[in-house]
Amino acid sequence: MSLKSEQLHIAVAGVGHWGPNLIRNFYTSKRSHITAVCDQDAKRLELIKSAYPDIEVTTSFDDLIKDDKVDAIVIATPTETHFELARQSLAAGKHVFVEKPIATSKQECDDLLDLARLKKLHLFVGHVFVYNAGIRAVKKYIESQELGSIYYVNLTRTNLGPIRTDVNAFWDLAPHDISILNYWFPDKPVTVNAVGAVYLNKGVEDTVYATYRYATGMIANIHTSWLHPRKVREITVVGEKKMIVWNDMDLNHPIKVYDKNITFTKDEDQLIDTFSSFHASIHEGDTLLPKIRLNEPLKAECEAFLDVVLNGNDSYSSGFHGAHVVNAMLAAENSILSAGQEVEIDYSIGD
Predict the structure, then answer these.
(1) Distance between CA 215 and CA 207 in Å, rounded?
(2) What's the CA gap between 189 and 345, in Å, rounded?
(3) Does domain 133-295+329-344 have CATH number 1.20.1050.10?
């Protein structure tokens, strides 16, 4: 259901780490008007009120869902609250923008998708990296076949802190990378092996390695950690013909395309195939630094949400996309609990 109006009236729940950024983008957009903001921390609300005097503030989420002027609710609260706040918002007839992950269980994802469908409302998930200009540029390289068949993808997302207690490092960081993989490739991974280690808080993995396998033979390895000396946001895509690296920390050249590959040729003079009859040929060509017009991904994401609700546009951040990310997350969690055994990914939700 789309609104036949030019401006969306929005309420925002949560003004911790990410909420103020969402408020800024929706406040400055000509297509949205922030009616109210909610948080349990009165001091945080005072800061919002001082910056935006015309926005109403409240410590009660009920005030948002009962406000008839509110068309949509943006949820930027701790992960464990996403499902319940999104459920209440949809039940009250509000469109929902919820930060990743959409929920933490299959049943919760199903319930939200069913409720949004029943109420004919839009459910949008904050997978901000699919709106990143560099990530979108890499997708074009993959789809153009310039890299050839993709052998594997290595994704690293590390930093020193912040340490969370509500979710582990994988649930905190990996949804970004899984959403990127699902955006880049038409096929979703079928199995995963994952291991995690706990060094700081009992029962909360601060370092996780997960390897996803695809039916095509491609693998994708994700490394997430809060216990690392450097903040790294880097993805390497190794193809049959070329290789590409996306580095979110490099503002000048976020993408580098390497004209490198290895091919094997057979010695036709030998009648019997042996190891020595095949020769590896290493090709090392130029490194291309494409010019990427950097954008503010969060602004693009907020505008995409407005396009969805106001105009009925499709997006890469629908509730179904969000559920598919949770599918992959839950399988990795089960693998960690089974000491790294390979686990099939259940796609019975979000289809």
Answers:
(1) 27
(2) 7
(3) no
